[in-house]
Design a protein that fits this description.
181 residues, alpha/beta, Rossmann fold, 21% strand, binds pyrazine-2-carboxylic acid, binds zinc ion
């Protein structure tokens, strides 16, 4: 049973430069994420990848009065992963319902049950965006009782100040922010 899991958050085309909702320099962490995926795979960890997987009429879209341009519509190129995932990675699709927003990979999914059933105790998190889906996922991981780590060199925020503040909030919640490579 793997005691550890790596959770790769929303490393999808639309969150990269040139995409519909780009995280500035989000592509700069792609190689690092791939290295962590390989490293954790070698350690025997469970590899999880969350993805924003919206219906075309999702409530978070501007056309419905939401804050974001249309992004990560399910089964479109913008929703594709930009990292290399092993064949046995667990894919968690979130915010799949038209009228519900979900930033956290735990919200409205069975991620907590999967991790618990697999015997996972510690989770390491990388991906985008630090102050939105990474933060929400990390804080939920703590709430679910997992020892939680954020991989500092493999996350990226939409705004640098927002990212720093988000990392502080996570640390106050008991999360360790570190780099392992
Ligand atoms: C995200 C905004 C909207 C994220 C998802 O992955 O951080 N941000 N949808
Ligand atoms: Zn979204």
């Amino acid at each position: 049973m793997p005691e550890e899991a790596l959770i790769v958050v929303d490393m999808q085309r639309d969150f990269m430069p040139g995409g519909a909702l780009p995280v500035p320099e989000g592509d700069a962490i792609i190689p690092r994420c791939n290295e962590y995926i390989e490293e954790f795979r070698k350690r025997g960890a469970l590899i999880v990848a969350t993805r924003d997987w919206h219906p075309p009429n999702h409530i978070s879209f501007k056309e419905r009065g939401g804050p974001w341009p249309k992004h990560c519509v399910r089964d479109t190129p913008g929703a594709e992963f930009v990292v290399e995932l092993p064949a046995d990675a667990v894919i968690i699709s979130k915010a799949t319902e038209p009228d519900k927003e979900a930033y956290s990979g735990f919200e409205g999914t069975n991620l907590a049950e999967i991790l618990r059933e697999m015997g996972v105790k510690r989770v390491y998190v990388c991906g985008v965006a630090t102050e939105y889906c990474v933060k929400a996922t990390v804080l939920d991981a703590v709430k679910h009782g997992f020892e939680t780590y954020v991989l500092r060199d493999a996350v990226r925020g939409i705004m640098p100040e927002g990212e720093v503040e988000a990392l502080k909030k996570m640390e106050l919640a008991g999360v360790k922010v570190l780099s392992l490579l």
